[in-house]
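re: that chain from earlier
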Amino acid sequence: MNHYPGIDVEQIAHVCHEANRALQVTQGDPAVSPHFMEAAQWQVDSAFEGVEQALAGSSPEELHESWTKSKIQDGWCYGQAKDAAKKTHPCVVPYSELPAEQRLKDLVFHAVVGAFAQHHEGEAK
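^ sequence. v structure.
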């Protein structure tokens, strides 16, 4: 549900997902996410939730901590490899324990949402 009238949360989620995917590709991630339009529903839902939280003012660290909490509630746990079938992910750790390249993903996600929000504010004037 979009709590931000006039802001296209789906468009922002799509761009955030693709930016994350591009980082995965350039970082040599062995489990690159599919394109947004081909992503599993849990990935789409995660992007929407992250956008909503960033629009509400969450920091990159808070976005990660919320993502981690959501993953754990859904049965995911830490694992050396991302595996949707086994529900393991190497980023199910506190933000402070993430490698720098993983923290970059949270920073980029946050920045993309911020750019869209700033653009919307400019359009609303």
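The chain has a mean pLDDT of 92.
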